[in-house]
Amino acid sequence: MSPRSPHPATSSPGSSREDQLLNIARRLFAHKGFHATSLRDIAEEAKITKAALYYHFPNKDDLYEKVVIQSLDALIQTVSADVARAHTPTEQVQAFMYSSAHFLDQHREHWLAGANAFHEAGQSERRGVALHLRDTYEKLLRRCITEGIASGEFRHLDAAMGTRFLLSGLNYVTRWHSPSGKLSVKDVMGQFVDMALFGMREPSLLPMPSAAAPQASAQEPCAKPARPRQKNAPRA
């Protein structure tokens, strides 16, 4: 018999059977991985026969669509709405990262299961849809950075590299962050984004910009430098 998930399946009066099965699938995908989880594992966890599971999900591709595509779609809708309420590029970048982190806090198993399934699944039509949604999500952050560069709010940099830099912190945080810790993912990302946008050095220690040298007028020629005074030759 396959190992049980550390969190047993629970049911609530208002939840449908399909929702219960999806929750089990997400939990197993998050803890074991997409490839390592079989339909038999999900059926055993749910205490139903494989035939009963096939009624809802005939194969893992159907689960992939529910676990990855629907989660990505929900993430994009949530983050896009929060970014739309922000005004400046800095506020938009902050809104993108905070909203994504809050989604991770609230739907951690959705995030982990979707990430595992996305990276482990082979090429398929459904994966193509997931890739399109992933690109849509990343382009939203890149647009915020690009607008910040264009407006002069951000210094000139590679917007694609800046996007990868911020997303790498968000994607990597699940490897070390504990949900039972004193900081939520949103708290962590708040510090991360602050360091990314404003740096780590104390503002008072940053070098002051040097004053620009006054430019000579085009109508007034520059004065010739004075010749150095020659010392008298020593007497014989």
Helices, strands, pairings?
Elements: H1 17-32, H2 39-46, H3 50-56, H4 60-84, H5 89-106, H6 108-120, H7 125-151, H8 159-172, H9 185-198
Intertermini distance? 113 Å
Order of helices and strands: HHHHHHHHH
CATH architecture type of the domain at 63-200: Orthogonal Bundle
Which outline best applies? Answer: elongated
Give the CATH topology of the domain at 63-200.
Tetracycline Repressor, domain 2
- Main sheet specs: none
Which key features would you list for this structure?
single chain; 236 residues; mainly alpha; Tetracycline Repressor, domain 2; 9 helices; disordered N terminus
What can you tell me about this protein's structure?
This protein has 236 residues and is mostly helical. The chain has a domain at 63-200: Tetracycline Repressor, domain 2. Helix content is 60%, strand content 0%. Helix 5 (89-106) runs antiparallel to helix 9. The N and C termini lie far apart (113 Å).
What does this entry show, briefly?
This protein has helices at 17-32, 39-46, 50-56, 60-84, 89-106, 108-120, 125-151, 159-172, 185-198. The protein is mainly α.
